[in-house]
From TrEMBL:
It comes from Saccharomonospora viridis (strain ATCC 15386 / DSM 43017 / JCM 3036 / CCUG 5913 / NBRC 12207 / NCIMB 9602 / P101). It is found in: Endoplasmic reticulum; Golgi apparatus; Secreted. Residues 1-30 form the signal peptide. GO terms for molecular function: serine-type endopeptidase activity. Residues 34-257 form the Peptidase S1 domain. This is Secreted trypsin-like serine protease. GO terms for cellular component: extracellular space. Keywords: Disulfide bond, Endoplasmic reticulum, Glycoprotein, Golgi apparatus, Hemostasis, Hydrolase, Protease, Secreted, Serine protease, Signal. One of its GO terms (biological process) is proteolysis. Its main location: endoplasmic reticulum. It comes from the Bacteria.
Amino acid sequence: MFTNIRRRLVIALTVLAGALCVPASHGAGAAQPIVGGTAAVIDDHPYAVFLVDGRGDQYCGGAVISPTEVLTAAHCALAVRKSDLRVVVGREHVDSRQGEELGVSDIWVAPGYRDPLSGEDIAVLTLSERVSASAARLPDSADSELYEPGTMATVVGWGRLYENGPKPGRLHAAEVPMVSDSACADVFRSFDPETMVCAGYAEGGVDACQGDSGGPLLVDGTVVGIVSWGDGCAEAGKPGVYTRVSTYTDDIESDLIRRTGE
Ligand code: 4AZ
């Protein structure tokens, strides 16, 4: 009798453990968040913001870098009239009312920016009010170890689950390894190691995608990259291309000091 109960208990616990241990992945080929990532909690990425256009639609990402500044891609900052652009801070689900929405009082765009493929795809939005969300760190201009090929980085955003696929409507995060400049230059003729850096697996499967632009690529909480461009999403042999943030840290910090004295 006693052993029977014990055996049932063991069976019940085994079933329960099995249910709890189902992997988060949805099987090969299934659509996954960002591409190949998982749903993420805003409290784990409090610096992560999204940009909405005049119709209130999410179209890009960004990262809080100070109480009044958001880092994003130049092509995101210039896509919408400044008076229409709103920054949403602290909201995990696009359709919720969590967090806050702020206007933009000023936009700094890298002076040499023309289009993403030419590099310099970086901008700083000044928010109309201060936010309490904790900021992501900027890399030192000499922080080369964060860019070591193979270093694992996290990309977060509200973008598509696969090329031309649906948007999940919530924050997702994925892990990708940093790629060497020479490997990236072999793939993309317009790759510029001064202003860009690549990340992704040789076999593909994990990547940023449409709508993730402007969002951060982080190593240990430091924004090493900004989602900029790519050839499709998560294809084998085609890493994502990010703006190399360390090239601009001095520019961003001197601009910040000039305008806010902080
Ligand atoms: C985009 O269109 C986009 N796979 C962003 C990132 C990548 C591709 C496209 C990288 O916003």
